[in-house]
Each structure stands twice: as C-alpha cells, then as structure tokens.
Amino acid sequence: VGQTGQSVQRHCHRSDQWLVIDRKVYNITQWAKRHPGGIRVISHFAGEDATEAFVAFHLDPNFVRKFLKPLLIGELAPTEPSQDQGKNAVLVQDFQALRDRVESEGLLRARPLFFSLYLGHILLLEALALGLLWVWGTSWSLTLLCSLMLATSQAQAGWLQHDYGHLSVCKKSGWNHKLHKFVIGHLKGASANWWNHRHFQHHAKPNVFSKDPDINSLHVFVLGDKQPVEYGIKKLKYMPYHHQHQYFFLIGPPLIVPVFFNIQIFRTMFSQRDWVDLAWSMSFYLRFFCCYYPFFGFFGSVALISFVRFLESHWFVWVTQMSHLPMEMDHERHQDWLTMQLSATCNIEQSTFNDWFSGHLNFQIEHHLFPTMPRHNYHLVAPLVRALCEKHGVPYQVKTLQKGMTDVVRSLKKSGDLWLDAYLHK
C-alpha cells in the first residue's frame, strides 16, 4: 500500500522512525543504532524525505543500499510528490542535475598525490620543530617558535583529518579510513569516531537548534536572532549575554580545543568503549612526551602541549565560525538541501593564503553541498553553484577574511542585544 507524506511524518520519534529515500519508505527504528555515521545523524531525518542527504553523504550509494533492503516497508503513493511539502521541486531537480554533472566530470574523485603532499608538509613542520631543539637547544625564543610550528601542524592536521573523515564515510576499510585514524589519532591525539559522529550532524542540519552540535553552546552564548529572544522572554540569564561578544575572547577561542573538546573526546571514548581510537590517541601522547621530555621534562612538556592546544584552538574557532556563526540559525524548517546549506553557510574569498590558512574551508558552501568532494575541486564547482543560486534567487555570500572574523563578533553582539531587549521589556 502506498504511503502518504503525512503518514511518514508521524514516525519521527526516538522509538518509531521512518524515512524516505527515492520514494521508498524505510523503517530505521532498530537499525539506526547500528548506523556507521551514528544514531543521531540519521535520526535527524526521521519522518522526512532524506534522499538529498543520503546522496550527499555516501560516496557509494549502491554499497549502502544493501543495508536498506531489509528495512523497506513500502513506497510513496503514486499521487504523492517526490519532495516534502514546502520544498522547491524545480530547485531540487536542478541541484540533482548539477550533482550528476559533478560526478560525470570526476570532481568527487580524490587525487592521492595532493593529500600525500599535504600530509608531507604537516610531518615536515613537526620534524623541523623538533630539529630546532636538537640543534640549537632550548630558549624562550626557540620554544615559542617550536610552539608556533607545532600549532600550525596541529591545525593543518585538523583540516586534513576532516578531509579523510568525509572521504572515508561509511567505509571501515580502505586507505582513507586508515589515514583518518592515523592523522586524527596519532598526529592529533583525538578520536575519529567522536569527530565523525559529531561533525556529520553539523553537515546534516547546519545551524538547526537541537540538531547541530556546533551551535549547542550549553547556555554560555545565545546565537542567531530567535534563541536570544526565547531566552529573554523566559528570563533565562545563565550568563550576561549582552556582554557575550566580549567574554567570547576569554572562553571561546582559547578553551574549545584544550578544554571542551578534550573532555568530550576522552569521555566519549571511555563511555563508548572505543579502545581502538583510545589506543591511537595514546600513541600521540606517548610520541609527544618521548620527543619533548628530554628538553622540557614532564611538566614542561605538559605546558608545551597545553600552549600548542591553546594556539590551535584560536585557529580552529575563527576558521570554522566565520562561515557559520553570522548566518541564519533556526529550528527545524525541513528545507531542501541547497537552501538549507546556503542559509547557514558563507564563503571566504579565495587566495593562496586563505586556502592554506583555512584548509580550503573558505569554500564552505561547496563543501557543505558536496561533503564527500575532495577539497582540491571546490574552486572548480564554485562557479556552477553560484550560477544555480543566481537562477533560483538563493543568496550566495562571499566575504573577505577580515569581514568574516569581525562578523563573528558583530553577530554575538547583535544576539546579546536582542536578548537584553527581550529580557527587560517582554
């Protein structure tokens, strides 16, 4: 019996989850717990047509479909539209045509040489940092230079593991998956599974409250235009939000990597009993202390890695937030893929420095539309995306690096002012 869109929408609860892919209806209630990308990311699409997300996330959809066959419970009725109500059918079709073109031109295929050279420059930075100490010994100036080089290598390794995470999605074998474990585990001391499960949610529902973990600020900040008003009306004041654009500099960039992320990483690995990722992570710290203990001792080495994380954290926060934090934030609106991604994402101007500094995440729009696309092809697809946006009247924002960073602070001040107004007068 053909299902209606309304009947599918009713199955959107934790204990009862259906979704639609290519007009076929699947009951994922039990299987969601075994989803390689994590239970949360697939549950975010319960009760919806997930076709666009399914295609975007999976490098080999045919490989994944064999897992879907046992979950099939029917199809949409012939009279039902292929898209959820409210989605622009023409835009969805045009974007699918663009994706077909991208695939046919080979823009989703990675060039191993590019990533090998990128990994090589990260390893070279680490080797140079250690080599300086062996040749010249320790001094304040050399220690600072060593810290800067290590922070740079850590940041660049972060962008590289981000690439491998997307390129190895849903595959537990292959060079991408193994390199992802190596880079995020041995070169950074973090967890591949923790990162993927968190980051895929961000891509699935960017800037959607309760679904994007990147905007779960734990009541420390109020973000966007709606959340501040909601907090203000409810008289919630966990922090002096009208000053958040100021205290952001004290607890945002400095602490998110060395404190918040590290606590999350180790708590997740132990709670999930992810001993493989824990072993990879421990290999980083073993290597680090073996290398730097002879120069700084135990406590000096702890201070060094803490300072490196402190520097890396600033880099990470500004690069990731300048393309998202000033953009639209809202509750679930069930938009089509392109509209949802463009409302939550903007680009930073292309330049050799910006490409390197951001790990090519200055092309956030293209990265979000095609999360499995290797970064060296973003600039090729960007003009095609811009043309499609112009055709359908979808804003395509490009900023300078300076404006992207200053807009982060401006957006925090604007949200804080909205909260204060609602708190005092509503």
UniProtKB/TrEMBL annotation:
Name by which UniProt lists this protein: Cytochrome b5 heme-binding domain-containing protein
Entry-linked Pfam families: Cyt-b5, FA_desaturase
GO BP term (any one): unsaturated fatty acid biosynthetic process
Topology in membrane: Multi-pass membrane protein
Primary location: membrane
Keywords: Fatty acid biosynthesis, Fatty acid metabolism, Lipid biosynthesis, Lipid metabolism, Membrane, Oxidoreductase, Transmembrane, Transmembrane helix
Family: Belongs to the fatty acid desaturase type 1 family.
Source organism: Oncorhynchus mykiss
Source domain of life: Eukaryota
